[in-house]
Write a structure and sequence with these properties.
With 92 residues, the protein is mainly β. It is 10% helix and 52% strand. The chain has two helices and six strands; from the N terminus they run ββαβββαβ. The longest helix is centred in the C-terminal third of the chain and has 5 residues, at 68-72. The relative contact order is 0.34.
Length: 92
């Protein structure tokens, strides 16, 4: 299995979840294939925070939920609009 990654930028928040937009165009039909993929965010201290793509949001962006542990700590440090995250896609 190989792994590919797509970079996305945080554009908004919906409750505790992040709304992200891919930095390179992804066809709307392909976005649904990203649901369930792991998401990584590296904060300014170099700590990695893990999340998951949970849904396609408003047809052209993705909804990302970080782990319950991250949320209980107030969310990933420094995560805000404009932050970059990596979506990991595992290919068979």
């Amino acid at each position: 299995m190989s792994e590919e990654e797509i970079t996305a930028v945080v554009v908004a928040f919906a409750g505790d979840d992040c709304v992200v937009s891919t930095t390179t165009p992804v066809d709307a039909s392909e976005l649904s294939k990203l649901v369930g993929c792991e998401v990584l965010y590296e904060d300014f201290k170099g700590d990695l925070w893990k999340g998951t793509v949970i849904d396609v949001y408003e047809g052209e962006t993705l909804l990302v939920r970080f782990s319950g542990e991250a949320i209980s700590q107030g969310g990933p440090s420094g995560l805000g609009q404009g932050s970059l995250v990596k979506i990991l896609i595992t290919k068979a």
